[in-house]
From TrEMBL:
Pfam families in alphabetical order: HTH_Tnp_1 (PF01527)
Keyword flag Coiled coil: yes
Keyword set includes NAD: no
Segments forming a coiled coil: 61-88
Transmembrane segments: none
Entry's Gene Ontology BP terms: DNA transposition
GO molecular-function term, one example from the UniProt record: transposase activity
SUPFAM superfamilies: Homeodomain-like
Name of this chain's protein: Transposase
Record keywords, A-Z: Coiled coil
Amino acid sequence: MAKQHDKQFKLDAVRYYEEHKELGLRGCAENLGVGYSTLGKWSKELQDSGSIECRGSGNYASDESKEIARLKRELRDTQDALDVLKKAIGILGK
């Protein structure tokens, strides 16, 4: 499961990388406990836009997309339960 980092952590991580270029991206990422591609993404995002986006839990673009994802999970779980019940009926019906 991926860790969720707040905006301040991301900014501090990029600042750390900028101040310790001699360690390289991988070295800094390892010291911070994040993936090197993640640190690279944060650095590029800050360089390109001057800010780092932090969407919050689950990284959903909006409350609507978060609700859609929740409903899809609920539907999948319900369908799984229905499949189990159908198999049980098939076994008990013999």
